[in-house]
Amino acid sequence: MSASLARDLDVYAAMAEKMHLYDELAEVENVLIWRDVIQERIAAGERLSDVEERELEHADDLLVAQRDRLVRRFPWVFENSASIPRERWWWHLDEGPQVRDEARRAA
After folding, report:
1. Around Cβ 55, how many Cβ atoms within 10 Å?
2. With contact defined as beta carbons under 8 Å apart, do 52 and 15 qualify?
């Protein structure tokens, strides 16, 4: 894994850990955008180690765990997500926590 992907994963994981504290729209959007960056690096061929895969999974679990709060407090984050690919499930959390599993099955 590249140093940049490792850094991005560390930042995303830290943001996901603090997600429950976020009160600002920009904070929430930054978490989702940071997850986009990780996905783009993976799609470009960068790979995570097994440990890093588990770290990403855990951070994603934390994000999904905050789904109800995010949808309730920041519904406008998800309003214009129709054009965002379904593989970027984090932008579609308003549709339910199952969007992550659906994206995995489609991949």
Report:
1. 18
2. no
For residue 68, the model assigns a pLDDT of: 96
Q: DSSP string of 9-63? A: HHHHHHHHHHGGG--SHHHHHHHHHHHHHHHHHHHTT----HHHHHHHHHHHHHH
CA-based radius of gyration for the chain: 13
* Closest by Cα among 9, 75, 82 to 42: 9
* Amino acid sitting at position 63: L
Give the pLDDT confidence of 45-80 residue by residue, as tens digits. Answer: 999 999 999 999 999 999 999 999 999 999 999 998
Given a contact cutoff of 8 angstroms between Cβ atoms, the answer to whether 95 and 55 are in contact is: no
Q: Report the predicted TM-score, pTM, of the whole model to 2 decimal places.
A: 0.93
Return the domain boundaries, the chain. Answer: 3-106
